[in-house]
Amino acid sequence: MTTLSEKLHVQPGETTRAPSADLPAPSAPVLSVRDVRISDRAGDREIVHGVSFSLTPGRAVGIVGESGSGKTLTCRAALGILPAHFEVTDGSIEIDGRDITHLSQTQWTALRGATISAVFQDPASYLNPSIRVGVQVAEVIRVKKGVRRREARRQAIDLLRAVHLRDPELVYGQYSFELSGGMLQRVLIAAAIAAGPRILIADEATTALDVTVQAEILDLLADLREQTGLALVVVSHDLAVVAQLCDEVLVLRQGEVVEQGPTRQVLHDPRHEYTRLLIAEHEQYGLEKFLVPKEDA
Questions:
Q1: In the chain, % of residues over pLDDT 90
Q2: In terms of CB atoms within 10 Å, which of 100, 133, 277, 292 comes out highest?
Q3: Which keywords does this Swiss-Prot/TrEMBL entry list (predicted)?
């Protein structure tokens, strides 16, 4: 049986197919968010006002907006890790056809990592500095797949190679403080996909990285969806990131979806003033390369 790391491994010089080119269509959604509303019980106010989207295998949805717009809360609701005092007060979320509303902690533990996983902005804060990074990836494999330690180590090294880390055997034995930010993010991605999830949430996963490393991580995420059919939710304040990766985009402002649609359509023909403002602000930071003339769109 082909492992995820084997599916991902692309030799230097090889080319990958266009996103979703060889995926059967249509497919049933692996993630369905319907009119989700999230409230802060402590402040007795609604923070997220009716977010809806669905995601099928090999597709990517982007969620953009300013800080505090509800992007991360929406994704944390899908992961079942809302902060204290916050709760989903209306709407529904289904993962792989399963309503998550009444899942027990045991059911959530089984679901996270194996069906839905996530990568966040600061990888160092999610890795134990006193344990070698490869051992942490191997432990995810051992726990989620039930394999022996030696086999978990082999699969972990394969994954580190698959996320394009040079000398994966060396990296396996290193600690987080010995690695660069880009290398740490690759390690975190390896851990996130170790159990073969169907959905990956990338929440500001490239925000703290320099431009060159950011481009490499975006290429890696594109490889993931192309080679494995992984569905992506990409959370970012950077429209250029969403433009590069996503098929559909939601624009959030103060917890409300002000615009939603195919990424190219939204970027070329924004209907809402706030979307137009975001585009104008981001054109000088790399978005312009994705804004081909309308007659070519």
A1: 62
A2: 133
A3: ATP-binding, Cell inner membrane, Cell membrane, Membrane, Nucleotide-binding, Translocase, Transport
